[in-house]
């Protein structure tokens, strides 16, 4: 298998499928492309079922802070005596539950300020 196991570019996938479709066996194509036999078989199976050969979008972890929460935190930086704990309590009471540590992480990493 290639050095990045499990991840092959769309170009490699296309080449592998076209090699098999033009007459090479599923044992010859992986040797030429330096991929595993199983990868070629999976790609061909998807192709025969009519599925796309491109990557499907992955959901990933959902964002904790919504756009509204970010705007409130950003505006609160201009006010004095605005604690992160109070911000968290205000946002949670308004229906946007965000923890204190999430707000602190957003202020430091995204806004570049000291919290």
Poorly predicted runs are 1-5
Order of helices and strands: HHHHHH
Taking the sheet with the most strands, its summary is: none
What is the CA–CA distance across the termini?
46 Å
Rg computed from alpha carbons, rounded to a whole number of angstroms: 25 Å
Number of strands: 0
| Fraction of residues in H or I helices | 40-55%
Total of helices: 6
Let me know the average pLDDT.
82
Strand content: under 5%
Structural class, by secondary structure, is: mainly alpha
- Apparent shape: rod-shaped
Q: What does this protein look like?
A:
The chain is mostly helical and 115 residues long. The chain has helices at 10-21, 28-33, 37-48, 67-76, 84-93, 100-110. Helix 1 crosses helix 3 and helix 5 crosses helix 6 (100-110). The protein is rod-shaped.
Kindly summarize this structure in a few lines:
With 115 residues, the protein is mainly α.
Task: Summarize the helices and strands and which ones pair or pack.
Elements: H1 10-21, H2 28-33, H3 37-48, H4 67-76, H5 84-93, H6 100-110
Pick out its properties.
about 120 residues, 6 helices, single chain, mainly alpha, about 55% helix
């Amino acid at each position: 298998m290639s050095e990045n196991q499990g991840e092959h570019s769309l170009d490699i996938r296309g080449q592998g499928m076209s090699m098999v479709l033009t007459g090479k066996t599923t044992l010859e194509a992986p040797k030429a492309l330096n991929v595993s036999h199983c990868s070629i078989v999976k790609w061909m199976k998807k192709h025969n079922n009519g599925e796309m050969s491109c990557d499907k979008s992955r959901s990933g972890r959902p964002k904790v802070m919504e756009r509204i929460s970010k705007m409130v935190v950003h505006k609160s930086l201009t006010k004095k005596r605005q604690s992160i704990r109070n911000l968290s309590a205000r946002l949670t009471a308004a229906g946007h539950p965000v923890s204190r540590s999430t707000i602190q992480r957003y202020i430091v990493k995204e806004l570049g300020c000291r919290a």
